[in-house]
Write a structure and sequence with these properties.
Largest sheet: 6 strands, mixed
Structural class: alpha/beta
Strand content: 15-25%
Radius of gyration: 15 Å
Number of helices: 7
Number of domains: 1
Shape: globular
């Protein structure tokens, strides 16, 4: 079920490439949470045409935004990061390596390679987060967000 939703979300990504730009969505802190909720949210965001500014930490299920929103519509602010760990069942708390692998398979190639270079799913744990920092994302070619206007 969840794998089908992951794949449906990626299909929405391809449909979204012709979407009219609607605005900007800014993420300051996204702690992750229910994967189904995030898949729906990111699928809707992909089809909205919004640009996305990640200006803080994007943890766990939040990182799936990278599989849904095209890279040209995403920027990373100073002190932002993507933080990855092994998926776990909300009901049992147990590790879900198959789900984690399905998620890894959907990330853009550069992020997927970064995760694999650290050992991939075999080395991930539920508790320890692998942090992909702003400067690392910029060196991969992701855009740096313009500074926010001060009020």
């Amino acid at each position: 079920m969840i794998r089908q939703m992951l794949l449906a979300g990626v299909a929405a990504l391809f449909l979204a490439t012709g979407a009219v730009h609607a605005g900007t969505t800014v993420l300051y802190y996204e702690p992750g949470g229910d994967i189904i909720d995030h898949l729906r949210r990111w699928s809707e965001l992909a089809t909205s045409g919004d640009n996305v500014e990640i200006r803080g930490t994007c943890v766990s299920a939040c990182t799936m935004i990278m599989a849904y929103v095209p890279r040209e519509r995403i920027c990373f602010g100073t002190h932002s990061s993507l933080q990855f760990h092994m998926a776990r069942s909300e009901k049992t708390g147990k590790a879900m390596p198959e789900m984690t692998q399905s998620m890894l398979d959907l990330y853009p190639e550069d992020i997927r390679k970064w995760l694999i270079a650290r050992g991939g799913v075999d080395k991930m744990t539920i508790m320890d987060k692998w942090v992909l920092k702003d400067w690392q994302l910029w060196s991969m070619g992701y855009r740096k967000c313009e500074p926010e206007a001060r009020s």
